[in-house]
Write a structure and sequence with these properties.
Layout (H helix, E strand, L loop, with lengths): L1 H10 L7 E6 L4 E5 L4 E4 L13 H8 L3 H5 L7 H14 L20 E5 L3 H9 L3 E5 L8 E2 L4 H4 L3 E7 L1 H4 L2 H5 L8 E5 L7 H6 L4 E6 L5 H9 L11 E6 L9
Parallel strand pairs: 4-5, 4-7, 5-6, 7-8, 8-9
Antiparallel strand pairs: 1-2, 2-3, 9-10
Length: about 250
């Protein structure tokens, strides 16, 4: 659990804030604070664990500020984690800059890329790049889709691994970390991922893929998430790549 402790230690250095608005949608979550900060979080992938709310969780979330919500990072419950991941993104947002998604285009070369429980829109996007991909996903069935528990067995044949916030919620990232050394690329995609380069670099992550947007984009993003839209296709969000080899928290 050292990774989770490190994330919280860094995130909680940011000022706390009162929650002004929290939305947990079908494809993502949105949180805004009374001081204007806001972030987009993660919900379980389609076909995965259902978003079954619990009354005690709802009451706790409604009484919590940004720091208290961030501490729910360790919760396995989708409702709490969705709120926590949005709070993490608000407390440690991606900075201006970064690289366009096309920065990753040549990363795998001709080698295989492993996708762990990917968003279907992300899968389609990467297929348009003609990447050779292997999908590990318990929520889907089909040709070329393998159970998630086999990821470790097949990881040696992939030069690049693409994961997302769901690996934090289900803690699968902890079992993957010993296998990441020597990979050409380990890409951690948001939303719901705080911008903490040194923490994730130490964990073996080589690139963060995070949504970035100006403060003025908050209302449009909130409406899109509330309507059930996925953050990956939200018009007001710009997805950027942050190579961790050259990135530091001072850029926040």
């Amino acid at each position: 659990m050292r990774l989770y402790d490190s994330i919280l230690q860094e995130v909680l250095k940011a000022p706390d804030g009162a929650v002004d608005n929290l939305i947990i949608g079908w494809k993502g979550s949105f949180l805004s604070l009374s001081d204007g900060r806001w972030g987009v979080g993660s919900t379980p992938p389609e076909g995965g664990e259902p978003m079954s709310p619990r009354e005690e969780h709802t009451r706790n979330i409604l009484m919590s500020g940004a720091h208290s919500l961030a501490r729910l990072l360790v919760s396995p419950y989708p409702q709490e984690f969705s709120a926590a991941s949005a709070s993490l993104a608000a407390l440690a947002p991606a900075p201006e800059g970064g690289e366009p998604l096309e920065f990753l285009l040549q990363l795998p070369g001709r080698d295989r890329v492993a996708l762990l429980a990917p968003d279907p829109w992300v899968t389609d996007f990467l297929r348009d790049w003609n990447w050779k991909i292997s999908i590990f996903d318990d929520s889907r069935r089909g040709l070329g889709i393998l159970p998630e528990w086999t990821t470790s067995q097949h990881l040696h044949s992939s030069a690049v691994l693409w994961i997302n916030a769901e690996t934090l919620r289900n803690r699968r990232i902890l079992s993957l970390m010993p296998l990441l050394k020597g990979k050409r690329g380990v890409i951690l995609q948001g939303p719901g991922i705080p911008f903490l380069p040194s923490v994730f670099r130490e964990a073996g992550i080589t690139h963060l893929v995070l949504p970035a947007a100006e403060e003025a984009a908050a209302p449009e993003t909130r409406r899109y998430i509330a309507a059930g839209g996925t953050p990956w296709t939200c018009p007001s969000l710009r997805w950027r790549v942050f190579p961790l080899l050259y990135t530091d928290e001072k850029n926040r």
